[in-house]
Every structure is written in C-alpha cells, then in structure tokens.
Write a structure and sequence with these properties.
The complex is a heterotrimer. Chain B is of the alpha/beta class. Chain B contains 14 helices and eleven strands. Chain C has a single domain, classed as Orthogonal Bundle (MetI-like fold). The N terminus and C terminus of chain C are likely disordered. Classes of the chains: A mainly alpha, B alpha/beta, C mainly alpha. Chains A and C meet through helix 1, helix 5, helix 6, helix 7 and helix 9 of A and helix 1, helix 4, helix 5, helix 8 and helix 9 of C.
Chain lengths: 264, 333, 282
C-alpha cells in the first residue's frame, strides 16, 4: 500500500474531503432551520465573524483568554517539570508523597473555584493560579514517570564516568524523559483550556468563557455556537503550535541520540 | 485484507444521525397536560418551577391555602438549582410555568425562544428596607448611594438588573455612576468576597442580606426604592405553545397567583411559615429577615414591562435597537 | 478534568502500556507506609492552620470537613448523589467504549479512513466539553441525559483516537504471516489483531475513564444535574462550606477508587502481556 507522496494534492485532499463534506452537509441541512437550538450554519458563521473576526471584539473577547492561558500553562509546565524531576530522582520522596498526590490530583479543578475566589480574589492572578493548579498534575506525574523511565543503564554509565549531576540532568535525564514530559504537557494544555473557560465566568473581565456565559444568559444561541467554534479553533491552533515545538525539541534530541550511537 | 469496513458508510451514517438529532431536538415541544372543555374552569395538573427562595412564597401559599384548587388546578412545584434552568425545562416540557427575573423574560422574547409572560411574581419593593439591599461594612464609609463612587461593588451579573438599579440609585442621589466599579461574582460567593474585603459593597437579596447582617455588615440602601418601585421584578412565564393550547389554564393560573399575592402581602407571617417548610433557608436566618418580598397584586400589563424596558435602555443595560415591545413580552389571549 | 500518565502522542512512546515500574514488593514496606502517613498528616496540619488563620468560616478545617463527611454517609441523599454520579459515569464510559473502540479500530485499519478523519477528530477533540455544556443544558435541561451527552462528547476522543492508533500498531510481520498462511479473517481478528491492539486500547480507555469521572462531576456542578457535583454547587448556594468541602473530598475519593479499579481490571485483562511480567520472582 503506497500513499501518493510525490503528488502533494493526494494527501491534502485525503485529509480535507471529509471535513468539507461535513460542513457542507451541515450548511444545507440547517439552512431553513427554525429550531431554537440549531440555527442555520449561515447565521452561526455570521455571529462568528461579528464576534471573533473583528479586531475590536478580539481585544475584549480573546486577548484576556490568551493571557490567562499563557501564564497559567507556563506556570504549570515549569513547576510540574521541576517538581517531577525532583520526585523522579528521589525515590523515597516520591513513594512517601504518592497517596497525597493521588488524592489532590483527583479533585476536579472546577470545584475549587469558590475556594480560590475566597483565597485569591477574582482577578487575573486567581485565574492563573487555578489554571496552573489544574494543569500541574499531568505534567508532574508524566515527568516523574519519564525520569524514572530513563534507562537505568544510562544513569549508571554516566555515574561511572563521573558526569556531573547538572550535566547528567540536562543531557541525559531530561532528554530521556522528554517524550513523556511532552505527553503530559499536551494533556495539561487541554485542561488549561477548560479551567480557563470556567474561571472566566467570574469577575466579568472578558474572555471567551465570559462571552459564552453572557450568550447563554441572553439566549443568543448563534453567538454560543460561534463561541464554541472559536474555542475549537483556539484549541486546534494551540495544539498545532505545541506539536511544532514538540517536534523541533524532540528532533534535536533524536539527532543527538543517533549521533551518540553512531559515534560508538 | 482487512478493508471490509467502508469508512464512508460509517461516516454517512454518522452524518445522518447528527442531522436526525438536530431535527428531533428542534421540534421537542411540550404536550399540554390539560384537557379542555367547552366552557367553565378546566381541570389541569401543572408543574411550576421555583427557585426555593422567599420570593416563591406566593406559589407555596397558593398550594397550601388552596388558591390553585379554587381555580381547578392541581399544582406541584419543581425546585430549580439555577435560574437559567427554567427556560430549557419549560421548552422541554418538564415545567408548565416558571418564575424568572424580568430581564430573562425580556431576553427570551427578544430572541424568539418561545416564552411568554403571564403574571407578576414580585415587584420592586418601595420600602426603606426591601427584599434586596446594598450591603457594606460599617467602617467602609458607605452610608448612602453617592458614597459608592470609587468603590468596588459586587453584582451577580455585569450589565444586569442589579447593576442598573445601583447605577440609577447613585445617580438619583447625585453621584457619578461611572465612578463605581462593578465586579461580577455569583451570589453564593458574594458574602465571602465581602468578608474577605475583595469588594467594598455587595448587591444582595434575602436571605443573603440577613446572612451578611449576621456577619456584621450594614444595610446601606434599597436599590429598588427610587428606581423601579411597583414594577415587576420577577415574573411567571410559560411557553407560547402551551399558552396558545391552554388559554383557560393560563387564565386560571393568573387568577390563582393574584389571589395568592394579595394574601401574601397581607399576611407576612404566612410567608415566613411557608418558607420554613418549603425552602432550605436556615430557620434561624428566616426569623431575622426584615425585608420581605413585595408581591404583585395587579395583573401584568405591557405598559409595566415597557417601563422596565425603558429603564434598562435608559441606563445602558439594553440596546435600544434590540429590545422587544412591552406588549410583545406579555401574553395576550 | 485530568488525564493520567500516558496520553496519545505522535511521538513514539516506547511500550505505551507500562508506566509504573513495579517496585520491590516486599522489602522496605514498613518505613514507606510511615513516611506516607507522615506526609498526609503534614498536609492535614497545613490545612488546619490555613483554616484557623483565615477569617472565620471561609475555609473549614479538616476536622469539621471530615465530621460532616462522616455524618453525611449516614444520610440517604448522600448515597443517592453518589449513586447518580457513579451511574452517569458508568453509562457514559460504557457508551464511549462501545462506540469508540470498535469505531477506532475499524478506522485505524484503513489508511484512507485514518487520514480522512484525522482533521475532523483533531479539531473536535480540542473543543472543551465546557463550551458545549450551555448548549446541551439548553436542550436537555439539568438532567442525566445532559450529563451523559456532555461527558460522552468529551471522553470519547482519547478512547477513539487511541484505538485508531492501536489498530495501526499491529506487527506487520504478523499480518503478512496471517495472509500468507491464509488464516481466516475472523480468526485473525480475534486471535492476533485484537490482542495485539488491546494494550494500546487500554491506555486510551484509562485516560478516558479518568476524563469521564471528572467531566461527570464538572457537568453536574455546572449544569445542576443530580449527583455529587450538584451537591457541591448546592452546598455553595446554601453557604454550607463544610458540606461543600466534604463533597469535594467525595469527588476525590471517587477518582481514587476509579483509578485503583482500573489498574485491577487492566492487570486482569493484560496478565499475559510482557509489561506485567515482573522480571524477578518475589
């Protein structure tokens, strides 16, 4: 079974036909719809253009969300990796804290919103902390697994060759754990998005979550659909960005691995 | 080779399923649960959606004092945890009538959701101490509406009725409403936010007003007093389809509610009594509540709603080009 | 919402199944348990200090919360709420597995199907279920059906996409061998294809399971459908903080139990797989 790699149109068409067919079907089926909850696709697109493709609206609806998720996600990833490496390397610490971590991780982030409001207020810092708290766990746990999964042989060899601890960390352990870390970071991204939407329903500082809440309250169904579309696109774009970063970091890692192997 | 399944067929089936679902959900309407006869009162079982609040005392009284029975209606209540559940449940047919706030009824009419307003639940309370109140701590220096300038005020919804009322009150007192900073926090967290100092004042209604008082906060002023006294604040709605198919039931419901409202206004102790059994409000708090709701003793009219709409438009809460006419909101057989 | 250690990744994660290396079983058990207890006690102390320092009643202390929790377990509505949540969770999970696994395996077996659906799945999976909650809530109201729809639409993606991935993981050698020996398709599917795909499918199902539970509670909390999540929301509205915290603990405990349950199931189902064979006899 050979795919047509020489002709670029083949793979692109193969990926595009289904989405296009689905959108077209939706358009025609809903064209004359009088249902409250399923307005015609044309009016959904109109709402979308009005609310999201308009630079003035973007500033109020999208920018706050991007800021929140950027800060919260970055905080979660950095703290998750740091704590994960620590726990991954110090076995006794990991075993001792495991029951506590399992309980904390199982708390739904959404349920903590009122507690966070009380502790941290209703402004951006509370929301960033809530996003970070919820997204921290997958990064932490995956980093721990990744660090522990690094070939014990590599670790022993590096110790025999008296490779310094920091160099060992940077050049052997982190790169070895990176596939797992990236898997955890990808999950954390999805969680960040969800908590961001929920956190934005408080305080009224704009953002996609607040927009969705308002649309729901005023029964603006087309706007709700438009916001769902916008969220989907935002998530999709963030994921593509993530994949680009992942591929470039891991490619460097794979290159290094193969260089190490070939130099033996 | 393992290519027996045809993904295209599976996808087509999926699309068909999706569109079928869209079609079904769109046409789900409430089958009327009443049997109509040619003349005379119509016997019917109705389900009324309430929020378990003091403002629903008229419904509870209408059941316990027999006002519904007098109109040949057998009513049961269904308690909604969130006010926003009322409209979906009405449209689904799980409720026949529901109590919602006026702004929701206006929005629903504007969006042609299929809801119509039939009766007034509570009106703006003109008393000094009303059902709603601005609460602030005694040391905050907030003693009158004008003092809210430069302060952070909690409301349950930005651009909603609470904010508009507060703005209007500030302006009526000679202050600058644009100098007030409004923050949106849901009522359950509002008292905690007030206690933690995250806001300087909060716009609450009973029983949260009494709870806040218990925590040492002062009742500053009644936002409904000089703004919408006597105008419907909460109303009863039903689906347009139900009203069209059961006009007699609607008329009987209206009569029963009017009687219950008059009774409630004349017997404040009855309100407290029924709240003890029908709501989850702490009885200790209940005993201390000062501001009881003012129930609407007149049939709701398009003019009243129009006044409310004009008030909202005048204070920027609604866009003048995107509001229904008052008459469009109210049910007219 | 949380997903456990493994997630679907385009990077080849070697041996997608084993994530928790078996530790030395018997030796050194005692001190570990002491340490674990110590950590938990420390956490409880921190909690207690926080509750004492903050203005009264804002954060109830651990004693208060546990007391409320214990008291709740004697009431009927408590178990009713737990039952609702467990039932919603179970139904959504079964729905996701029954639809996601066969569909994913089928799609994954055909390269055309895999590539055709990739864009669609990639897009749909990134829509946070929270976004569609208001819409589903409008259609179904605060009911069990609403929860199932929201949870299923959110949790099916890890299961479905991982199943697609799993179908492509079958050793090409085995496939060719089956073809050259003209092994009947049914036999191939049940004896070679499915067992080969099962470990990978299980990874997706495990992720899906945790997602299901957390989404169930979230949907109940935000949507008001009966269950543990709704109890949390109601306790909030009634300003009953100890009760709210107690129910949050219940949610965490449920998550713990589901996780443990899943490991037990996985160990049973995949007892034959290499990752479950411990090298040293203990």
């Amino acid at each position: 079974m050979r795919t047509i790699r020489s002709h670029w149109l083949g793979p692109v068409a193969l990926e595009m036909w289904l989405p296009l067919v689905l959108v077209a079907t939706w358009w025609f089926v809903s064209a004359g719809s009088t249902s409250v909850y399923f307005p015609p696709l044309s009016s959904i697109f109109a709402s979308f253009a009005r609310d999201w493709l308009n630079p003035a609206q973007l500033d109020r609806n999208l920018l706050p969300s991007l800021q929140l998720i950027g800060a919260g996600y970055a905080l979660a990833v950095v703290s998750g990796i740091v704590c994960g490496v620590l726990l991954g390397l110090v076995d006794t610490l990991e075993q001792a804290t495991r029951p506590l971590l399992e309980v904390l991780r199982a708390i739904p982030g959404v349920a903590l919103l009122p507690i966070f409001i009380v502790l941290f207020g209703i402004d951006a810092q509370m929301k960033v902390l809530l996003i970070a708290f919820g997204s921290f766990w997958p990064v932490l746990l995956n980093t721990v697994d990744g660090v522990r999964g690094v070939e014990p042989l590599l670790r022993d060899v590096s110790r025999v060759f008296r490779v310094g601890p920091w160099r060992r960390l940077a050049q052997i352990i982190l790169p070895g754990a990176s596939p797992q870390i990236f898997a955890g970071a990808r999950t954390a991204l999805a969680i960040s998005l969800i908590i961001m939407v929920v956190a934005e329903t408080v305080g009224g500082n704009g953002g996609i979550g607040y927009f969705l809440l308002n649309a729901q309250r005023s029964f603006a169904i087309s706007s709700m659909w438009g916001a769902i579309l916008a969220l989907g696109i935002l998530g999709y774009l963030l994921n593509i960005l993530f994949r680009i970063v992942e591929r470039s970091v891991l490619r460097w890692h794979r290159l290094q691995q193969s260089r190490l192997e070939s130099s033996r | 080779m393992l290519t027996a399944r045809h993904p295209i067929a599976a996808v087509a089936a999926g699309i068909l399923a999706l569109t079928a679902l869209a079609g079904c959900a769109g046409t789900a309407e409430a089958p009327p649960s009443a049997s109509s006869s040619s003349s005379g009162p119509v016997q019917a079982d109705i389900v009324v959606g309430v929020g378990g609040q003091l403002s629903n005392a008229d419904v509870y009284l209408a059941i316990s004092e027999g006002f519904f029975e007098d109109e040949s209606l057998t009513a049961t209540t269904s308690t909604l945890t969130a006010g926003s559940d009322a409209v979906p449940l009405l449209l689904k047919g799980d409720l026949d009538f529901a109590a919602v706030d006026m702004a929701t009824a206006i929005n629903a009419t504007q969006q042609n959701v299929g809801i119509t307003t039939v009766a007034t639940n509570i009106v703006g309370n003109p008393a000094d101490i009303g059902y709603a109140g601005i609460m602030a701590s005694s040391g905050s220096g907030i003693d009158r509406p004008k003092d809210l300038e430069g302060k952070k005020v909690q409301v349950n919804q930005l651009g909603g009725t609470a904010e508009v009322l507060t703005r209007a009150a500030v302006e009526a007192d000679g202050g600058d409403a644009s100098a007030v900073e409004f923050v949106e926090i849901a009522p359950p967290q509002a008292v905690a936010a007030l206690a933690a100092g995250q806001v300087d004042a909060a716009v609450l209604s009973e029983p949260l007003v009494t709870v806040a008082k218990g925590q040492g906060f002062d009742y500053v002023f009644n936002p409904e007093q000089d703004t919408i006294p006597g105008l419907p604040a909460f109303v009863f709605v039903t689906t347009t389809a139900f009203a069209q198919q059961n006009p007699e039931v609607v008329a009987q419901f209206q009569a029963a509610i009017l009687a219950a409202n008059a009774f409630a206004n004349a017997n404040p102790d009855a309100i407290r009594e029924t709240a003890k059994t029908s709501t989850t409000i702490d009885p200790a708090v209940l005993a201390l509540v000062e501001g009881l709701p003012a129930f609407g003793e007149e049939p709701i009219t398009g003019d009243q709603v129009q006044e409310f709409i004009d008030f909202l438009v005048g204070h920027g809460a609604l866009d003048a080009s995107a509001v229904p006419a008052g008459d469009a909101v109210v049910w007219a057989p | 919402m949380d997903m456990t250690h493994d997630d679907v990744s385009t990077v080849d994660v070697p041996d997608a199944v084993a994530t928790r290396p078996e530790r030395s079983a018997r030796s050194g058990r005692g001190p570990i348990i002491v340490a674990q207890t110590g950590v938990i006690i420390l956490a409880l102390l921190v909690w207690w200090c926080a509750s004492a320092m903050l203005p009264a009643g804002i954060v109830p202390g651990p004693l208060d919360t546990f007391g409320t929790l214990v008291a709740l377990t004697t009431t009927v509505p408590f178990w009713g709420a737990v039952a609702e949540t467990v039932w919603s969770f179970g139904v959504s999970l079964v729905l996701c597995i029954v639809i996601g696994v066969p569909l994913g395996l089928a799609i994954g077996s055909s390269r055309i199907a895999t590539q055709s659906t990739r864009l669609v799945f990639d897009f749909l999976r990134t829509i946070p279920p929270i976004a569609i909650l208001p819409l589903v809530l409008l259609v179904f109201g605060p009911t069990f059906e609403m929860v199932v729809v929201v949870v299923a639409l959110g949790a099916i993606w890890p299961i479905l996409i991982q199943a697609v991935y799993a179908a492509g993981q079958g050793e090409a050698l085995l496939k060719d061998m089956a073809a050259s020996f003209r092994i009947p398709r049914a036999w191939y599917v049940t004896r070679i294809f499915l067992p080969g795909a099962l470990p990978f499918v299980m990874t997706g199902v495990r992720v899906g399971t945790t997602v299901c539970l957390l989404l169930t509670i979230t949907a109940e909390l935000l949507g008001g459908a009966p269950g543990v999540g709704a109890e949390i929301a109601e306790a909030q509205v009634a300003l009953d903080n100890p009760q709210m915290y107690a129910y949050v603990m219940v949610a965490a405990i449920l998550g713990l139990l589901v996780n443990l349950g899943f490991w037990a199931v996985q160990r049973r189902l995949l007892h034959w797989h290499a990752s479950n064979r411990t090298g040293t006899a203990s």
